[in-house]
From TrEMBL:
Protein's name in the database: Uncharacterized protein
Amino acid sequence: MTTADSHDNVQTQKAGGGNLMTDHGLRYYIEEGLLPDMVCGATHVQTKFQKKFRPRYFTAKIRGGVLEELRLWGPQVLKDGSLGQRELDYRWKFNAG
């Protein structure tokens, strides 16, 4: 069974009493409509791949109490405005030290 604890506009999904863990860290859900559509990419990378997505949750990698990476995730926004199946993200990386 999955439950969710609300923290203002952010929810941390829990399954079986623990946090939902992904390959990218803990997943925190964002209230729908809280953030505008974004273009995928990263702060440190220039790319020609410019697709829009609708932020639905974020992940955070924390090591030794230091935030290393933060990503916003959500479904791709298609040309007709509908949402696709593909999950896109925007990533911020932080230097530890």
